[in-house]
Amino acid sequence: MAKKDNNQAGGAGGDSPGGNPEERFLKAFDEYADALFRHAVYRLSDRERAIEIVHDTYTKVWGYVRGGHEIETYKSFLYKVINNLIIDEYRRRKEYSLDAMLAEEGTDEGAFPELHAGNVDEVTFSLDAKQALELLGELPPVYREVITLRYVDGLGPKEISELIEETENVVSVRIHRALRLLKEKIVLREERAEDKRLKPIL
Amino acid sequence: MKSFETEIKKYALKTRLKAIEREAIRDRVLSYMEYHPLPKHGKTEHVSFFNRTDFVYVSLNTLRVKIFATVVAMVLIVGVPFVAERSVPGDVLYLVKTGVTEGIRTQLATTPYQKVTLETKLMERRIGEARLLASEGKLTEEVEAQIAETVREHASAVQTGIAEIRVDNEEEAALAGIAFSSALEVQSAVLNESGKEENTSSVDGIINAVNTVREEVASDADSASPSFDGLTGRIESETTRAYELFESVKKSATTEEIADIDRRFADIDRKIVGAKELRATDEATAMGDMIDALSLTQKLIAFMTDIDIRETVTLETLVPVVLTPAERLSAVQQSITESEASRVAVEAATPTITDAGIAEKVKIGLADLVLRIEAARAFITEENIEGAETVGGEARALAEDLMKLVAPVVGEILPVPGTVTGELLGTTTATTTEGTVGTTTSSTTVVVDETPEPLEVQ
Fold first, then answer.
1. Long-range contacts of B257-263 (CB under 8 A, 24+ apart)
2. What is the average pLDDT across B373-378?
3. Residue B369, burial from CB neighbour count under 10 angstroms (0-12, 13-18, 19+)
């Protein structure tokens, strides 16, 4: 796993409990604004909206601090808030709900046949990272969510499970399925590109 | 082959906020914090959900009520802090200004550098408020004492901030100390001018407070001198800033004002060039000149940026013109010429003096004047400008006193060429837009009473 940078995850500063609330809050801004923005961009595929969501996240969190609450770990709290705001945004856009999507796929997340660490490696082995990021926006929201949290934000399955309030197993399954879906999309895109290339000849 | 995880992160990291976007969000968040500050008590009380009374349902479902509520909210959120900014001690909103708005700014200043800048600004604000109250005759002794105390507190916070900077960076601390001294000198000048105005309350208490702080800063044993290179760098950045300000000031300033400021830039540049040349032979003096140049630049910036300062003090008070060697030479030559003209006039009037005592004093005075004029001319020949200025000033003072002495004899005060009655003795003038500049003092004491005796020549 790549080394975590301060903008992406971790770092003391705003996450050190105690001290001046304003100072901690501003440190949390300096440390996580870029990471939250990145998260929002890949979840929403809309740069301008991502900027607004980052702003709304910080104002909401400040409102919470004003309410007299002390935030122990800014990183997870900020991710929680931005995640909720993004879900609200999806709702406004009337994108698929998880239930609807699962019903559509006929998938049972209670059964976990894919849960072997090797499986993820097998899927990612031949996966092109650049294309995967480009096609992330085509994934259903729940898959986009876990892939973004796992690979863009660098969170572990346990952190993701706490954030989205699912078990670690469910998170792992979703990641696996999301990667598989991404791979399919990449293959499909490559096939289309190949067809397009050959079409004039044919 | 790199892992998928590493690769995807590498690409993802390219997605980040542009600096301008980041600043824009930060500014918006800061504004939000400013208008939604933390409650004073810091912590909310735990109230049982069932006992809460703030969930009273009020129907606001009419357009009028919504509009009214929005207007009220806007007034409270935006209007009150805005109006409070103009408040002075004694106003209802003054506590909003000092307690809320400035309180937030203080909280947001997280580094010692930011603290020093902010506390200096707050000290200047308190002095400005005191001057405003004084100009309206409303500065009571009690309020003056309170403001003086607050000025001391802000100054103390600045000194603490500088001490904190010194722990990690002595040079930066020294440069911050120079900036603070410059700010104090500007405030002192402004207060002194305010104190001279008629129909105003006394600001002596505030002046004393500022002067005390100035003395403390000047005698701070812990302060170290910055390096020559550090000073050069800071002067470069400050003069760049000053030139940028000058460009914007030019759009609205008069030709005279532009010439005045331009002249100060030339003086500062000359001082810097001189200091750099002097460094090889006399580093201590060169350092002193560089510190002086930095301080003058900072005062010039204060003059250009603060309309309140511009309206209270002249640029000459804050940043006096420094004569060039050629100007100094020209001034001293002019002074000698005028002294010589006076000598001729006094000599011509001498035969008409009937009082033997006065005649004797005039005779001695004339002899002395001749010697001093000759000495001054000798210094000019030797290109010793300082010597010429000193002796020339003495000659000028003596000539003027002699003119006053013979005035009753001839029935009128003989005009001294190139001088104005009542002008300071030994004052030289330079060709600047602000008139009298470059005062030199005379070491000769000639005591002249209203009645023309006794005359003492020491």
1. B259/B432, B259/B433, B260/B315, B260/B432, B260/B433, B260/B434, B261/B300, B261/B304, B261/B315, B263/B321, B263/B432, B263/B433
2. 93
3. buried
Residues written for chain B: 458
- Describe chain B by its helix, strand, coil percentages, rounded to 5: 70, 0, 30
Residues of A in contact with B109 (CB under 8 A): none
Name which of A22, A34, A125 is nearest B17 (Cβ-Cβ).
A34
Q: Compute the radius of gyration of chain A from its Cα atoms.
A: 19
Q: Is B46 left (phi over 0), alpha (psi -120 to 50) or beta?
A: beta
A38–B6 C-beta distance less than 8 A: no
Which amino acid is residue B89, in one-letter code?
A: P
Express each pLDDT in B43-77 by its tens digit: 433 333 334 344 444 445 566 667 777 777 776 66
Output the pLDDT for position B421: 35
Neighbours of A102 (CB within 10 A): 15
pLDDT of B384 over the 70 cut: yes
Residues of A with CB under 8 A from a CB of B: 1-2, 5, 7-8, 20-23, 25-26, 29, 33-34, 37-38, 41-42, 51, 54-55, 58-59, 62-63, 65-69, 124-125, 127, 129-130, 132-133, 151-152, 154
Does residue A94 come out as left (phi exceeding 0), alpha (psi in the -120 to 50 range) or beta?
left
The phi, psi pair for B159, rounded to 5°, reads: -65, -40
Interface contact B13-A66, CB threshold 8 A? no
Looking at the predicted structure, is the pLDDT value of residue A87 above 70? Answer: yes
- Averaged pLDDT of chain B: 78
Q: Which residues of B202-213 are buried (b: 16+ CB within 10 A; e: fewer)?
A: ebebbbebbeeb
**Average confidence (pLDDT) over A13-31:** 79
Give chain B's end-to-end CA distance (angstroms, integer).
Answer: 97
Nearest to B15 among A25, A41, A69 (CB): A41
pLDDT at A81: 94
Cβ atoms of residues B8 and A129 within 8 Å: yes
Residues B184, B95, B132, B307, Cα dihedral to 10°: 60
Cα separations in angstroms, B121 against B106, B114, B309 = 11, 11, 14
Q: Taking residues A42-54, what's their average pLDDT? A: 91
**Across the A/B interface, how many CB contacts are shorter than 8 Å?**
98
Nearest to B301 by CA among B244, B227, B222: B244
Interface test with A, best of B2, B6, B11 (most A CBs within 10 A): B11
**According to the model, what pLDDT value does residue A67 have?**
85
ipTM of the shown complex: 0.79
Angle at B51 between CA B49 and CA B55, to 5 degrees: 70
- Inter-residue contact A35 to A153 (CB < 8 Å): yes
What are the residues whose beta carbons fall under 8 Å from the beta carbon of B251, sequence distance 6 or more? none
* B21 interface with A at CB cutoff 8 Å: yes
Q: How far apart are CA A38 and CA A7, in angstroms?
A: 10
Q: What is the mean pLDDT of residues B240-266?
A: 87
Phi, psi of B453 (to 5 degrees): -145, 160
Which pLDDT belongs to residue B415?
A: 53
Flag whether pLDDT at A202 surpasses 90: no
Greatest extent of chain A over all pairs of C-alpha atoms, in Å: 71
Mean pLDDT lowest among B10-19, B116-125, B152-161, B440-449: B440-449
Residue ranges of E strands in B170-282? none
Cβ-based neighbour number of residue B51 at 10 Å: 6
Q: Does B5 touch chain A (CB under 8 A)?
A: yes
